[in-house]
Design a protein that fits this description.
alpha+beta, DHBP synthase, Rossmann fold, 7-stranded mixed sheet, 15 helices
């Protein structure tokens, strides 16, 4: 891999930098070129593919166009597949793309072809960019797209793992909290895309012994605004309070909104939940699996803080497995319960029944408000 040494990208791989620039382009609604094995295609997110984009691509001579969709969305469209697939776009019809990518009642209207390496890399790019996982992919004459960013599919697929090795502390300071006055915030850069991650060190945990730890994925609606649809805010505050009242601990606040789908897709899922979908069916209708989150970088954050053994506060077996897989010694796991509400009880039951979370409804009932 070529290393860029120009004062702005010192020591960073050229491919890694190209991926990061591609994420910015896709989030801005622009297309990028994706290359693999001598072939190149143009990729644009379906949510940005409007009539203007369709007309511009047609004028540029675009051909061999297809809409790439992940397996959960294909299942919703009535075309069950084990892997992602693509639907041909003989004409660049923005309304058809919008329906196949997003409309709940839509059904597949053409044969589904298996996704190739470029298709899979396109979906990975969109996932990293936290936009809708549906990609318009087409072949465009090179002269017509000469100014567009080119990124290699192999660099896209290697990007997440590379980000774990890029994690670095970029700032830290004491931040006294209500009920936990001796608390330090440690900010890491990297791990997931271009986002920052925060370790909240509560008290003075003994790093030579197992440390109380919680991996908490950001939830704007629950953590900040007290949404009744989830138990996230309760889990956040209860974990910090328990750490402060005992021997301290570390809460990792991870920028993984909506189980890694991003805030915009979380709101799309909430709109579907308002129509009767449960939390996982709503995500699947948008093209997402049960959970897009990764926790390998969380384990690296703990390692950089000097933690080797943990007592983890979680209901999620995936987090426990991830910490063990990363080489941390998980000596115990303890439940973290919020308050059940009329609005979140179905969500909690879905997490227990469909994702295997350790949620005891008898214990929850004891926390229910009068």
């Amino acid at each position: 891999m070529t290393t860029v040494v120009d004062g702005l990208g010192l020591g960073r791989g050229a491919g890694e930098m190209a991926v990061e620039r591609a994420l910015a382009e896709l989030r801005a609604g622009r297309g990028v070129r994706l290359a693999a094995n001598g072939a190149a295609v143009l990729v644009i997110g379906a949510e940005a593919f409007d009539a203007g984009a369709a007309a511009a691509l047609a004028a540029a001579g675009a051909g061999e166009a297809r809409l790439v969709l992940p397996a959960p969305r294909l299942l919703k469209l009535g075309a069950p597949r084990a892997q992602a697939g693509s639907v041909s776009l003989p004409s660049l019809d923005a309304a058809r793309v919008a329906a196949l990518a997003l409309r709940p009642e839509a059904r597949v209207d053409a044969p589904v072809a298996p996704a190739n390496a470029l298709d899979l890399a396109a979906l990975e790019l969109l996932g990293l960019a936290l936009v809708l996982p549906a990609a318009v992919v087409c072949v465009v004459p090179a002269a017509a797209v000469a100014g567009l960013l080119m990124v290699d599919a192999a660099d896209v697929m290697a990007y997440r793992a590379a980000q774990v090795t890029r994690l670095a502390i970029v700032g830290r300071a004491p931040v006294p909290l209500e009920g936990a006055p001796e608390t330090e915030f440690v900010v890491f850069r990297g791990g997931e895309g271009l986002r920052d991650q925060v370790a909240i060190v509560v008290g003075r945990p003994d790093l030579s012994a197992p440390v109380a730890v919680r991996l908490h994925s950001a939830c704007l609606t629950g953590d900040l605004f007290g949404s009744l649809k989830c138990d996230c805010g309760d889990q956040l505050r209860d974990s910090v309070r328990r750490m402060a009242d005992n021997d301290g601990g570390i809460l990792l606040y991870l920028d993984q909104e909506g189980r890694g789908n991003g805030i915009s897709n979380k709101m799309r899922a909430y709109a579907l939940q308002a129509q009767g979908y449960d939390t996982y069916d709503a995500d699947a209708a948008l093209g997402f699996d049960l959970d897009q989150r990764r926790f390998d970088f969380a384990a690296e954050m703990l390692s950089q803080l000097g933690v080797s053994a943990v007592r983890v506060f979680t209901n999620n077996p995936q987090k426990i497995a991830a910490l063990k897989a990363a080489g941390l010694d998980v000596v115990s796991d303890q439940r973290v319960l919020g308050r059940p509400t009329a609005e979140n009880v179905r969500y909690l039951a879905s997490k227990r029944d469909r994702a295997g979370h350790y949620i005891d409804f008898d214990a929850l009932a004891a926390r229910a408000p009068d």
